[in-house]
Design brief:
alpha/beta, D-Maltodextrin-Binding Protein, domain 2, 2 domains, five-stranded mixed sheet, 42% helix, elongated
């Protein structure tokens, strides 16, 4: 783990004075690049993006990784950073939304049938993000508990390092179904059955951004774009809720 972190720092350090470095939760893979490109075109500023699970990105930030801005999938992880790093400031930017994704041919088309599909063996493997460090994994466990499917799913879970990897397990055929981020699931809609999950089935995931003490005016400008009209419109169109 320490070696991986040191390699990350070595890759990013040469860019520290030249670009705003944004560490973002994996659910933003489909949304953030376009926002960053628009911001670069408008300001001439260069933005470097690093994607991963919120827990791991937060730990790297607390260990000194040269991030200017964190875009995390929950408020709890954001507050851990704020408490550990003097001068870091957090605020909400989006509400996470989940979806059930299913490979065609599995015979599962709604959430109500998930428990039965797991118990009967129609779903042999269910992919979720690892709840040890990914907020979407914790939310997925909440969904399973709300559906009464926690016990049926326990031996069938396939854990992705982050929510994007969990989706990749389903698209590749390594899992029959998954509980993943709705914005990512929408991109796979032509290949997979996508069923949005009502947010009442899990504890709210209030996604928070964290401006690190090293953030300059350029980083603050990008955070303002994300939370302003352009950012909110892009997030809503992708499938996120808005705080």
């Amino acid at each position: 783990m320490m070696l991986r972190w040191l390699l990350l720092v070595m890759m990013l350090w040469p860019l520290a004075g030249q670009a705003t470095t944004v560490a973002a939760a994996a659910d933003l893979r489909a949304t953030l690049p376009a926002l960053a490109t628009a911001h670069e075109a408008a300001t001439g500023q260069r933005i470097t993006m690093v994607f991963g699970s919120s827990g791991k990105l937060a730990q790297q930030a607390m260990n000194g990784a040269p991030f200017d801005l964190l875009l995390l999938a929950d408020s709890t992880t954001a507050q851990r950073v704020v408490k550990a790093v003097p001068g870091a400031r957090a605020r909400p930017y989006a509400l996470a939304r989940l979806a059930l994704v299913v490979r065609p041919g599995v015979g599962l088309r709604d959430l109500a049938d998930l428990r039965t599909a797991l118990a009967s063996g129609r779903v042999r493997h269910l992919a979720i993000a690892n709840p040890a460090h990914a907020p979407y994994g914790i939310a997925a466990e909440g969904v399973l508990a709300s559906l009464g499917a926690g016990s049926a799913a326990r031996s069938k879970l396939v854990l992705g390092d982050n929510v994007a990897q969990a989706l990749a397990f389903v698209t590749s055929g390594a899992a029959d179904a998954g509980l993943v981020a709705l914005p990512l699931a929408k991109l796979a809609g032509g290949k997979l059955i996508v069923v949005p999950v009502p947010p009442t089935l899990h504890a709210p995931l209030v996604q928070n951004l964290v401006l690190m003490p090293r953030a300059d005016a350029l980083a603050r400008d990008f955070a303002a774009r994300l939370t302003g009209p352009q950012g909110r419109a892009a997030l809503a169109a992708a499938g996120f809720g808005l705080p």
